Amino acid sequence: MKKLLLIILIFADALISHAQQKKPNIIIIMMDDMGYGDTEPYGMTGIPTFNFNRLTKESTRFTHYNAAEPICTASRAALLTGCYPNRLGMTGALLPADKKALNPNEETIASMLKKEGYQTAMFGKWHLGNKPPYWPLHYGFDTFFGIPYSHDIWNRDHEGNLITDKKDIRYTWPPLPLLEGDRVVDSITSKQKLSHLIGQLTERSVQFIKQNKNKPFFLYLAQSMPHVPLAPSAQFRGKSELGEFGDEILEIDWSVGQILKTLDEERLANNTLLIVTSDNGPWLNFGDHAGSSGGFREGKSTSWEGGTRVPLWIRWPGQVEAGGTNSMLMTNMDILPTIAAATGATLPQKPIDGVNFLQVWRGKVKTDPREVFYYYFGKNNLEGVRYKNWKLVLPHPSNTYAPLHGKGGDGGKIGRVDVPVALYDLAHDPGEAYDVQLNYPDVVKKILALADQARNDMGDDLTQHEGKNRRQPAMLK
């Protein structure tokens, strides 16, 4: 009888433990301007990315993952809210004089998970508002340490020398603030101080993981590199075959390795959903200080694939296939609803544009939940539409990096071209080189109808459509 009672108690205890199992920890690591081809798993040569290679063996790697827009502020708004950024009025890249900010009424991944009892932290580049109360603590993060915008938005050149030319817009910019919560705790005023940033953000992230290992947590590590100006730390300077850019990728690879190591040491890996990606493609006019778009056309600040197509690793041992590759169309707007499904969190009350990919990540679904992606850029320009493997490029003015690349940290010339309508089959032509619209008029007709739906919903400045369902950003006083 005693043995039977003991067995019952053990079984009951196991059931209770299972029922009380922690929700998965969530970590998002996002690099800045890291191109599709900047690591060995996605085609880079000359830079041994040991930790990205390990991550690839332990993750599913996505090959058709797109940022909602190919620029900083817009992409970050899309990731955190699950919405097209132009729907929220969050376009472009905020500069110090800009007054708009992400509306605090919009729910973020952090505020969504905070309601579920998660400890939340962000370390790195924010770029969604220039002053409090439009900094991370007001969007669901318990802790924040980092910078308000890109680290090239300072009153110095790429070598850290003070700008003295009053005609240079950088002359009017302040030193780069280093923030702790809502306070400015320091200023980054030299390339040497800038070189400490990756290490500082990584150290803070490791500390946060260790301090919260016994409760569910959400960590958003938004590295500001390899965006120019490059500033590898002394530990990595001169260590690669590709100059400062290669050194910077080595340091980023080290940072990812520190997170993986900490999860292993704290025995958290199996209960942690790790998402590693980039905000947009490479800033190609910086030449040897920029990365690789992996053979895709153009780069950052364009609606070609080189601007929006970025790497994505999803690691969740026992839940997501290790060493897998997935070619389904996915966007950074899909991260929020997928995290909601993985954690049981309630989706935002306001409509979002993201799609739940959890069953795709788990290998349970073989059909793509997303068929359509709209390429918006500028203030509200609809520049292209993807439908399955087809991409219809709509007439629009565009940047081009063809004229002249820079060298040694100096930016080259960025040209402007008028792009005509064209249809590309990305299954056979990922470089967008061959217009096949005359061969497939029915496909063009189908995608033009989808474009009209987007214009009615979110508007289109190129065709003077206002859109019925756009929401307003916050405005600084």
From TrEMBL:
The keyword Signal appears for this protein: yes
GO MF term list: arylsulfatase activity
Entry-linked PANTHER family: ARYLSULFATASE FAMILY MEMBER, ENDO-4-O-SULFATASE
SUPFAM superfamilies: Alkaline phosphatase-like (SSF53649)
Signal peptide region: 1-19
Keyword terms, alphabetized: Hydrolase, Signal
Residues covered by region (Disordered): 458-477
Domain Sulfatase N-terminal: 24-344
Protein name: Sulfatase
Pfam family, one: Sulfatase
Domain of life: Bacteria
Cited InterPro entries: Alkaline_phosphatase_core_sf, Sulfatase, Sulfatase_N
UniProt similarity note: Belongs to the sulfatase family.
Biased composition (Basic and acidic residues): 458-469
Transmembrane segments: none
